[in-house]
Write a structure and sequence with these properties.
By secondary structure, the chain is α+β, with helices and mostly antiparallel strands. The chain has two domains: 5-69 and 110-169, no CATH class; 76-109, no CATH class. 47% of the residues lie in helices and 11% in strands. It has helices at residues 26-38, 47-58, 65-68, 82-88, 97-108, 114-128, 143-159, and strands at 5-9, 15-16, 70-72, 112-113, 164-169. Strands 1, 2, 3, 4 and 5 form a five-stranded mixed sheet that branches. A hairpin with a 5-residue loop joins strand 1 (5-9) and strand 2. The termini are close together. The mean pLDDT is 93.
Length: 170
């Protein structure tokens, strides 16, 4: 299964997050961010929690921001478009109208100042350059490159006047 990542810029067009070969890096970003984000819903000791705790302990900034700027799926809907959402997905989503509205509002609140995101991305790129163990959520070959590609794109967005961003993976 393939996933595409898009850097969304408030009041701008989404930009594809591609590596130097022009390939979208959504799959490694989704694997890493999905696993990291899921830890907030569990307090149990696990291999995943241990691994991410090691990463967090090496950081000079709060890496938790990574969990707050990313969302999966297409949530470009107004609060009044529940029926359109259900129609677009052919009833494949089992979500109530209330849950739909909560999700739309949550995605809207993800806009984050670009400097905060740049700081976290610089730190995660630095840390991942020394990580060499393969897991189902991390690949030495693709994950560091994915975050570096996202960092490079975000620097360009800032140079072009971008102020607030979030990351969509579809």
């Amino acid at each position: 299964m393939s996933f595409d990542a898009y850097q969304e810029i408030e009041n701008g067009e989404p930009l594809s997050v591609n590596n130097d070969d022009g390939l979208n890096v959504g799959k490694p970003l989704k694997g890493f961010l999905t696993c990291y984000s899921a830890l907030q819903f569990s307090v149990e000791k696990s291999l995943e929690r241990e691994w991410f705790s090691k990463i967090e302990n090496q950081a000079n900034v709060d890496l938790g921001l990574l969990k707050k700027i990313y969302y999966a799926g297409d949530w470009d809907y107004s609060l009044a478009q529940y029926e359109r959402f259900i129609s677009d997905y052919g009833g494949g989503y089992w979500i109530t109208e209330e849950e739909f509205k909560k999700t739309v509002l949550s995605v809207r609140r993800m806009w984050t100042p670009i400097d905060e995101v740049l700081s976290v991305l610089q730190e995660i790129v630095r840390i991942l350059s020394d990580v060499h163990e393969e897991t189902y959520w991390y690949s030495n070959e693709t994950t560091p490159i994915a975050f570096l590609s996202l960092l490079k794109l975000l620097k360009q967005v800032k140079e072009n006047g971008g102020k607030r961003v979030r990351l969509a993976i579809e």
